[in-house]
Give the backbone structure.
Amino acid sequence: MTVKVQTVCIIGTGLIGGSLALALKKSGFCQRIVGAGRTETTLMKALELGVVDHYETDYAEAVKDADIVVVAVPLSAMKNVFEKIAPALSSTAVVTDAGSAKQSVIRDAQAAFGESSNRFVAGHPIAGTEKSGVTAAFTELYENRKVILTPAENTDSDAVNLVSEMWQAAGAEVESMSAQHHDMVLAGTSHLPHILAFGLVDCLNNLEEVDEVFRFAAGGFRDFTRIASSDPVMWRDICLSNREDILGMIKKYEDQLQMISSALQDSDGDALIEIFQRAKKARDQFSNQ
Ligand code: NAP
């Protein structure tokens, strides 16, 4: 593709930021990628792996010539990064993020950027693995995966278009929705499953027979709990940032478990079959999409 912008600055060159850098390099979307972050050894590794062309440990220095700034740090670190880059951005620069919850990031961006928050486009790639860090980054992460943008009412449409083009260059399909809707949907499809995986492994780990449990664990346990190997700090941040929606989903799930528990107490096989058949049909339909 023809070069679209000169410089993309990626703050947080971990799995998400590093993979985006690799995909943009492959596509030829920009002339150069500048990495930034809090830890110089991580940035040196990113340079050594060819993920970035140049790095800066000073956020303001890193963003000053950037056309697009992508902030891909844990949710609890967004506000600090936004505040540090705000005075150094050019008037035409577009800022976006990759955080897994959107309403909290938009609040942080509006507080830090003030009147310039029209150049901020909130985003979330629906792609990832349970691994973290720049060494886990790979070029194909976003291929044929969805990226959700959640522009606010005041977001400039040219900024939204540029961020869409960037993710498309990385191989992704871009959709837009409100931040509120995003957080509700993702609480069910991503945040609750991670909580259940962490919760199940912790629960089994507390059993006296824990060694036996893990020794005889089969494919189902592996499939269900893979995501419990995800980064605890990232997931603490997601839980706290999307607390209300997640609590709502946990309540729905508690009601569901209660229904299954009641069917078991009553030895009601028909009720169990009804729930399991309904779930199997929905899961099979999803697999065939
Ligand atoms: P990651 O691999 O752990 O990378 C995080 C990056 O942020 C690293 O470069 C890390 O550098 C830096 N960082 C960590 N704490 C920081 C702090 N306090 N201040 C500044 N920089 C800091 O995590 P990731 O999976 O790429 O996740 C990044 C963002 O993408 C998160 O907001 C997450 O919610 C979102 N996301 C993740 C996934 C997923 O499946 N992993 C999917 C979609 C969206 P050092 O620790 O070396 O300093």
Q: What stands out?
A: The first helix runs from residue 15 to 27. The mean pLDDT is 96. The chain has two domains: 5-177, 181-287. The chain has twelve helices and nine strands.
